[in-house]
Write a structure and sequence with these properties.
This protein is of the alpha+beta class. It has six helices and seven strands; from the N terminus they run E-E-E-H-E-E-E-E-H-H-H-H-H. It is globular, with a radius of gyration of 18 Å.
């Protein structure tokens, strides 16, 4: 399997205006999230070949409910999506691919370009914003996110059927090690949220509001963990 280093933390990296577009139902790519993909459809094998020969970028489109009825309208996916870079690639003997895509940025899809055999997205990068608030509030939000994530981890550590696989990684994150917005994304990517819940986190550019929405979801996770139940889905 081939591996590359990512420009994820390099502010000088420029995402091209037009990127290969890969729509999937119930799939949301957050910044910083590693996503395994198995590519088997012919047009997306060609898309992967093309991406690997250029900048290795792909936009993951989250398809809306009822997308089957809107395939010809270019309105079947949400307008806010994630762009990722292929970090690991394995070419199988029959032309299929196993990939690991790393989320780089939130983007807005300005236009879907019809291009045979696969489509491309004209995109705009969406940067984080921060409501005017004190550093004390920001530190408090960060601490509560970390405390709740680790508490859920400890509560579920003996229940392999419901414990999200990402929680051991969360336990190694210290306060101040990530910007608040990135911490929200990283935490949400490690949890067993539904795709609409992840889409809600993805679409929130204000990091304070994103933190508050994440904490709302985490508190529900915590209540479920206390009672040994599967994580509740607030949005479906």
């Amino acid at each position: 399997m081939n591996q590359v280093f990512s420009p994820f933390l390099d502010d000088s990296f420029k995402v091209p205006e037009e990127v290969p577009f890969f729509p999937l139902p119930e799939v949301v790519l957050l910044p910083g999230e590693p996503m395994p993909l198995h590519i088997f459809e012919e047009r997306y094998k060609i898309m992967t070949e093309t991406a690997l020969m250029s900048d290795r970028l792909i936009v993951m489109g989250h398809m809306k409910p009822g997308w089957e009825k809107n395939l010809l309208s270019n309105q079947e996916t949400y307008s806010v999506a994630g762009v990722g870079q292929i970090m690991m690639d394995e070419r199988l003997h029959d032309g299929r691919f196993n990939l690991v895509l790393l989320g780089l940025k939130r983007i807005k899809i300005r236009k879907i370009v019809e291009s045979k055999p696969y489509r491309k997205a004209q995109i705009e990068i969406l940067e984080d914003k921060c409501s005017q608030t004190s550093s004390t509030v920001l530190v408090s939000l960060e601490k509560e996110i970390l405390d709740l994530a680790n508490l859920i981890s400890r509560t579920k550590k003996d229940d392999r059927s419901t414990a999200p696989e990402g929680f051991p990684v969360l336990q190694n994150i210290g306060e101040g090690s990530l910007p608040l917005g990135a911490l929200c994304d990283f935490t949400a990517a490690a949890l067993n949220f539904s795709s609409p819940e992840k889409q809600m986190i993805l679409e929130e550019l204000d990091v304070v509001k994103r933190s508050e929405k994440l904490l709302f979801l985490l508190r529900f996770q915590m209540e479920a963990a206390k009672h040994g139940a599967a994580p509740p889905k607030l949005l479906n």
